[in-house]
Design a protein that fits this description.
Elements (H helix, E strand, L loop, with lengths): L3 E5 L3 H13 L3 E5 L2 H7 L7 E4 L8 H8 L10 E5 L4 H10 L3 E4 L4 H11 L3
Parallel strand pairs: 1-2, 1-3, 3-4, 4-5
InterPro entries: Bact_response_regulator, CheY-like_superfamily, Sig_transdc_resp-reg_receiver
Pfam families: Response_reg
Organism: Pararobbsia silviterrae
Length: 122
């Protein structure tokens, strides 16, 4: 059975690039345009990993991670931050919120798949 990954980014083109790479590697993909949209789509279904941008309208990535970690069904779901933010302070904030990995944009699809494979258990 394919593992499901949620991509949260306000850029539709970026979501598409990530989704194509993940689907090519055999994953099912859900997409959301920001943190609030993502929370609305998390209705209890199994999600094996979430990939979230940091800077988004309505609800940014760090707030989204904090909110997701409050939900019993997703408390232990790994979250990867995919962002242009490279400052250590932002990374620490992300880790403190519960993010497991930090991938900088622009990224190579193989790099993203590698991170996903490390975090999604077989």
């Amino acid at each position: 059975m394919a593992k499901t990954i949620l991509i949260v980014d306000d850029s539709a083109s970026l979501r598409q690039v990530v989704a194509i790479a993940l689907r090519g590697a055999g994953y099912d993909v859900l997409e959301a345009s920001d943190g609030r949209d993502a929370l609305a789509k998390l209705t209890g279904q199994k999600v094996h990993l979430m990939i979230s941008d940091v800077n988004m309208p309505n609800m940014d990535g760090i707030s989204f991670v904090k909110a997701v970690k409050q939900l019993p069904a997703y408390k232990f779901t790994p979250v990867v931050m995919l962002t242009t933010e490279s400052q250590d302070e932002k990374k620490r904030e992300g880790q403190a919120a519960g993010a497991k990995a930090w991938v900088l944009k622009p990224f190579k699809p193989e790099q993203m798949i590698g991170v996903v494979q490390k975090l999604v258990l077989p």
